[in-house]
């Protein structure tokens, strides 16, 4: 494609060029080169790409390692955050070892390793590590390491709290629409938007008591717009019409690191006399 100006408004340009190769050529390890000539400067640059067969030999069984962050509910509600190190596609548990380390000195004591057999015959291993909210907020880096007889070299994955801009969400609790009052069940909707990062938790309460999570639905965070960096989410709760008319109080509780107290709630109930 033709060169285009950089989006930052500078005086430089960028361009891309694409070619197609067959799967067989790529897996054979053939080398492909891209040659770029810039006449104004007289420079010529050549880049190379090929399939790294050596990596295939290091991990022939395609064992995968993932480290999952703590939920905001565990961080700021129960204050018992946990990290999960998940190893998938294990052909067996022979010589399997998982260990945790952190950047600063200290002893780490993970829970007992959990092994689960999948429908395809492989195993999934999960190691859970309990950490402190203070360590996570301070930017402590945690690393999970896995070794196995089918790995020529151990796999390592690290996780640390993101350092991007934090934006608190706007929260709106919408009561049932008047047209819905003709039905035996009603809908309460909680709109949460303009927040960043996207790690968010929504809980519902009835008369200040937790409502089971299987009685409401919350959408995954979505971008506020194609050009936006913030997110939005909806949570929908179905309630009995009789409960709403009786004046029961329903609350939408949102947990997010950008909120002043890490959580905030909005309440709704039927207005007396209406």
Automatic annotation (TrEMBL):
PROSITE patterns assigned: IG_LIKE, IG_MHC
Keyword terms: Immunoglobulin domain
Record carries keyword Repeat: no
Pfam families given in the database record: C1-set
All copies of domain Ig-like, residue ranges: 60-160, 169-269
InterPro entries: Ig-like_dom, Ig-like_dom_sf, Ig-like_fold, Ig/MHC_CS, Ig_C1-set, Immune_Resp_Modulators
Family matches, as CDD domains: IgC1_CH3_IgAGD_CH4_IgAEM
Top-level taxon of the source organism: Eukaryota
Protein name (record): Ig mu heavy chain disease protein
């Amino acid at each position: 494609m033709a060169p285009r100006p950089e989006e930052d408004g500078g005086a430089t340009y960028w361009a891309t060029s694409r070619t197609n190769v067959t799967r067989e050529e790529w897996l054979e390890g053939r080398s492909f080169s891209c040659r770029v000539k810039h006449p104004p400067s007289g420079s010529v640059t050549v880049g190379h790409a090929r399939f790294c067969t050596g990596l295939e030999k290091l991990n022939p069984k395609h064992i995968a390692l993932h480290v999952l962050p703590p939920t905001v509910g565990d961080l700021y509600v129960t204050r018992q955050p946990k990290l999960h190190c998940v190893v998938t596609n294990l052909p067996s548990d022979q010589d399997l070892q998982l260990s945790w380390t952190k950047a600063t000195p200290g002893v780490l004591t993970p829970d007992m390793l959990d092994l689960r057999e999948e429908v395809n015959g492989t195993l999934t291993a999960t190691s859970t590590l309990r950490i402190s909210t203070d360590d996570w907020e301070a930017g402590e880096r945690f690393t999970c390491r896995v070794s196995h007889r089918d790995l020529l070299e151990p796999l390592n994955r690290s996780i640390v709290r993101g350092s991007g801009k934090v934006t608190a969400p706007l929260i709106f609790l919408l009561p049932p629409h008047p047209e819905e009052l003709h039905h035996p069940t009603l809908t309460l909707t909680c709109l949460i938007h303009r927040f960043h990062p996207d790690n968010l938790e929504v809980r519902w309460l009835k008369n200040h008591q937790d409502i089971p999570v299987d009685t409401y639905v919350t959408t995954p965070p979505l971008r506020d717009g194609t050009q936006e960096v913030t997110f939005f989410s909806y949570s929908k709760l179905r309630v009995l019409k009789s409960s709403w008319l009786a004046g029961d109080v329903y609350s939408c509780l949102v947990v997010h690191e950008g909120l002043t107290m890490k959580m905030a709630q909005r309440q709704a109930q039927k207005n007396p006399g209406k």
